[in-house]
């Protein structure tokens, strides 16, 4: 039985989904902008052309073991949620897809192209966590992760925010926002906690000081001024004092009232 798809290859040229993929091999380990990855056991979707040979010429049809290829100016590797809906995307420019038919009706893909956004290693594990949550991430789901996986979490949150962008800035709740600082033990944790406080589980509000300053002025969450109640501020003061002071300085400079709790 084929593994449930977690991704889909979408052609922006054709405005069509081409293949459903269980998991891309080598994509999240890419170290260069021009990269190759594979997707064994992909499912052809109606937008693909099963009879396309090299560069759109005639092929030999499914199940024959034939190999065919086609160029695309722009592809998206779209990340799917548990319901099969896209939640984020990676763009691949000047791409070429080569497919090899299998006797079971599936195809093995080889995709080459320019990665507009170099994937952070481990982000595929984060997408799997999000998918397992079924679209309802619990608060603090990032907290048990180590530092590297927290960085990957931030990358997933950023790409998810970009996918939904632009959104109107939400009105600040009457009591302001609340940040649970109990797991702010490293720099990525600081920004994971800020993102969750401003946008709920999986939310994004910057992954660096410069990105936080940008978010404070609109695009990915509430626009200052507002009130932020910071629970367990002592943990960040102990574990990441320099990063905390820089973040607090940016928040206050933008007009945010930070209250410890």
In N-to-C order, the SSE pattern is EEEEEEHHEHHEHHE
CATH class of the largest domain: Alpha Beta
Helix content: 25-40%
CATH topology of the largest domain: Barnase, Chain D
Query: How far apart are the first and last residues' alpha carbons, in Å?
Result: 52 Å
What are the segments in which pLDDT stays under 50 over at least 5 consecutive residues? Answer: 51-64
Helical stretch tally: 6
CATH architecture type of the largest domain: 2-Layer Sandwich
Strand order of the largest sheet: 1-2-3-6-5-4
Structural class: alpha+beta
Q: State the shape.
A: elongated
What Rg, in angstroms, do the CA atoms define?
A: 21 Å
Number of domains: 2
Biggest β-sheet description: 6 strands, antiparallel, barrel
> Based on DSSP secondary structure assignment, what is the total number of beta strands?
9
Could you tell me the strand content as a percent range?
25-35%
Q: Please tell me the overall pLDDT.
A: 90
Protein name: Barstar (barnase inhibitor) domain-containing protein
Region (Disordered): 39-72
Biased composition (Gly residues): 54-66
Family: Belongs to the barstar family.
């Amino acid at each position: 039985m084929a593994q449930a798809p977690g991704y889909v290859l979408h052609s922006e040229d054709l405005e069509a989904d081409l293949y459903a993929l269980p998991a891309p091999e080598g994509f999240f380990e890419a170290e260069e902008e021009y990269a190759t990855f594979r997707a064994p056991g992909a499912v052809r979707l109606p937008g693909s052309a099963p009879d396309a040979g090299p560069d759109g010429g005639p092929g030999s049809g499914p199940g024959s073991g034939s190999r065919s290829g086609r160029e695309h100016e722009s592809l998206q590797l779209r990340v799917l949620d548990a319901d099969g809906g896209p939640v984020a995307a990676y763009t691949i420019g000047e791409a070429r897809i080569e497919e090899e038919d299998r006797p079971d009706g599936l195809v093995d893909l080889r995709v080459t192209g320019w990665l507009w956004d170099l994937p952070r290693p481990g982000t595929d594990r984060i997408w799997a966590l999000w998918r397992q949550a079924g679209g309802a991430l619990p608060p603090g789901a990032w907290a048990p992760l180590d530092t590297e996986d927290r960085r990957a979490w931030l990358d997933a949150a950023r790409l998810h925010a970009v996918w939904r962008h632009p959104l109107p800035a939400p009105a600040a709740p009457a009591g302001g926002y609340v940040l649970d600082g109990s797991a702010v033990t490293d720099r990525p944790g600081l920004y994971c906690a800020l993102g969750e406080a401003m946008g709920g589980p999986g939310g994004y509000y910057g992954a660096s000081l410069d990105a936080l300053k940008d978010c404070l002025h609109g695009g990915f969450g509430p626009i200052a001024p507002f009130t932020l109640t910071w629970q367990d501020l002592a943990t960040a003061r102990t574990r990441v004092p320099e990063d905390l002071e820089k973040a607090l300085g940016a928040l206050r400079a933008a007009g945010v009232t930070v209250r410890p709790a």
